[in-house]
């Protein structure tokens, strides 16, 4: 988002309660807590908060903060447009159309919110940075307390006297939020070094303790990516962005080359083995429609996706024990339960090679933008990449909202005023 030069005086004269910083601060304080208590509410919190930022910017300046279309926003809008076009052949055309519209609208809303922050006074941007760090610290503490209490806190929020077994898994999303926020706080120069160190230690310790294997990896990957940006300068973020783009472009080929060479999967957790089998099934369906894909949101309606894996597939991956047969015979162990748990494969499956090229362009542009914004942005980008490649569906609105809030916050507290996103 290339910040247009506008007079800063209206922002400097306006009280905090009327400017766009206040909604941003509220979101940064609330989202880590919401991630622990009910992560799906992040979609609502970020939608309302970003809208409030845009309205506040309009109230202060008298003009709507129309965002310029930089490389990242342009690529994201192209993905939204292609998703809507894919409604012509998608299994559920209205769902594909609606998803493309919502995604494009969400991106434009975040871009406008970032534009609204472009001329906020420096002391308000510092307040946003301090709030991000404080919210992250409280979120880490709350997640750890809930885990150590046997999820009693989250059960109480839901009006339950005892925590049911399934509630245990809800903390996975909280760890993902911690993973992407941690590098931003750790790299913020206005936070004392010992506070940054404590946040890193606490965040990594919480990620190890809590139930989220992919988010654990993401938390450490984010800190490593931040370190790479410190060592390599802007080339750290650029190389990560180019690498991510390359992985997306060749994802089906990589999957086809690697999966048959894996050792038997009996030694790993059934849920991890299930994910690998999902990737294998998705790759088979990608090969059937490689150019255009099956259409937006088609992962939840791919032919054969709701069936369980046959014995031949289990044998092929070395899942021959009685325990594995029983686990994979359960109805939840579907061949494609809603999405692929891999962003690159889901893009190929739904949007084909055209969508993959657009997604690769967006990821490369994001890497270059993160490089300009500093090590914290590169670390957050690295963590988000790991989460996207191992966990959530690409259209999950709470996760999109989280990443857009993250981009707006980083642009405000770490980026130079003339940076493009």
TrEMBL record:
The chain crosses the membrane at residues 24-57, 69-90, 96-118, 125-145, 165-186, 193-210, 216-232, 239-259, 345-366, 373-392. It is found in: Membrane. Pfam families: Wzy_C. Coiled coil: none annotated. Its main location: membrane. It is a multi-pass membrane protein. Keywords: Ligase, Membrane, Transmembrane, Transmembrane helix. One of its GO terms (molecular function) is ligase activity. It comes from the Bacteria. The keyword Transmembrane helix applies. GO terms for cellular component: membrane. The keyword NAD does not apply. Residues 218-359 form the O-antigen ligase-related domain. PANTHER family: LIPOPOLYSACCHARIDE BIOSYNTHESIS PROTEIN PA4999-RELATED, TEICHURONIC ACID BIOSYNTHESIS PROTEIN TUAE. This is O-antigen ligase. The lineage of its organism: Bacteria, Pseudomonadati, Pseudomonadota, Alphaproteobacteria, Acetobacterales.
